Amino acid sequence: MALFSRRKKTDDAVPEVQTSAEAEVAPEPETPDAPAESVPEIGISVQAFRGVGADAGPEVNLEEPEAQATPATGDEVPQRLRSVSTTGMPDDQKAAPRLPLAAALPPEQTHTVEGLNDNVLLREALAELEEGASNEQLLGVMRQSLQGHLYLRVHGDAREQISSGKPLSVGVVRDGDRSFMLAYSSGAALRASVQDAEDAASTSAIAQPVTSVYQQVVSGGFTGVIIDNSSAPHRAVFPTELLQKALDQGDEDMSVKTLMAAPRDEQTPVRIGEALAKTRSWVAVNDGGNGQPVGIAEAHTTDGRRFLQVFSHPLEVVALGRQDKPMPFKPEQLAKVLSEHPEIAGVLVDVGGPSIAVERDALSAVLVLAIDLGDD
């Protein structure tokens, strides 16, 4: 976590970035009310998860209704594997607005303001937004926000507030009874928000994990969060209900997503395999149709090897724009599928990017769970 303070409004020098302890956000921030016109309309809701990539259908990936729920024991899993494209959208959806996808390899850590590391995946996803962005595009941005950090703008000296044990007085905009916490993906977005502010000289900032920020929005009674408010149209508004649902669907540390976005070395596949053995993942399924059983998406490489597609969060499935639905998969269920299909070479994680193919020899932490099931 890092913080900085602007010395004066006209000072273009980059402030020194320092580390600090964990911070608490005040439920009632002591920041001046912003004019109502600075609050964008919320164009996305929990219902936006429903039917994304399909014409219609029940909501399946947030509430996990009984029709789509994964068996608790892990003994019954979809048996049919089906090949799908490893690219984002199927051919019949190429005319749809492009969703914020990413390259397979995680981006190099960069900054738009010296000393302040950007959340590059989120920054690049926001850069693709235009006026009138669709729900699908906003959900694509949200899935890229679920790792890394966000900057919070603080009224006063953040370091002093932390050291004195005070809750942080974070930046907020209000519109009547609605209140939105302000957060920023990059140093440039943060600088844009303070360069013309009257209180710029007394403004500081702090970087916190995204999940921590979202939890603070939920627990603080806010209506939602606005990311990069001064960078329209490259900004996003996420209501609190949506944040709560997104947090509920991931593990506390977003361990798999965090590993996918981090720099990689030869041990990365093993670490991802270990993470998959400890937390549920998601698979992409369809309803079979014509009496066919539910099928789990797999991918074929150019050399003919087959990989099961798994996802760190249901939004990873939604963001592909396919007619698949996310289905929660416990580690034991993943182990069962892999053990019953020895022809599967491994798993392909988060095909929308960053992604990685993890082969069987790196999935020993998962495969051993199938042995334990057999012993039972």
TrEMBL record:
<dbReference type="InterPro" id="IPR009839">
    <property type="entry name" value="SseB_N"/>
</dbReference>
<feature type="domain" description="SseB protein N-terminal">
    <location>
        <begin position="260"/>
        <end position="364"/>
    </location>
</feature>
<feature type="region of interest" description="Disordered">
    <location>
        <begin position="1"/>
        <end position="95"/>
    </location>
</feature>
<dbReference type="Pfam" id="PF07179">
    <property type="entry name" value="SseB"/>
</dbReference>
<protein>
    <recommendedName>
        <fullName>SseB protein N-terminal domain-containing protein</fullName>
    </recommendedName>
</protein>
